[in-house]
Design brief:
The protein has 146 residues and is mostly helical. It has two helices and no strands. 81% of the residues lie in helices and 0% in strands. The protein is rod-shaped and about 160 Å long.
Length: 146
Amino acid sequence: MRAVSGGEVAGILVAVFWAILVSFLAVALARLAQTLKATTKLVADVTDQAVPLLADASAAVRSAQTQIDRVDAIASDVQEVTSNASALSSTVASTFGGPLVKVAAFGYGVRRALSGRKADVPVKEPRRTVIVGRTVPAARRKNRGK
C-alpha cells in the first residue's frame, strides 16, 4: 500500500467540499428555477386579467366623461332658466307690484270707511291726546310707577 501524503488528503477534502457546495448550489438553482416559473405564470395570469380590467376602466371613464358633459349642459340650461325667471319676476314685480299695492290700500281704506259708517255700530270715542304742560291726574300717577 502506498502512503497517502498530506497534500493528497487536502486535495480530497477540497474535492469533497466542492462537491457538497456544488450540490447545495444545484438545489438552490432548482428552487430558484421553480420560483421563476411560478412568478412567470403569475405575471402572465395577472396580465390576462388586467387587460380586460383596463379596457373596462377606460370604458367607464369615457362613460363618466359623457355623463359629466351632459350634466354640464343641464347645469348651464338651469342657470339660463334661473336668470330668465329672475328677470321675469322683477319685471312682473315692477309692472304689477306698485298698482296692486295701491289697489289693496284703496280697498282697505274703502272697507274701513264703510265699516265706520254703519248705523248699529257705536261711534268710538277719540283717543285722548297728550297736551304738553299738563300734569297727569293723581290716579294715573300711582299706576305709572308699577
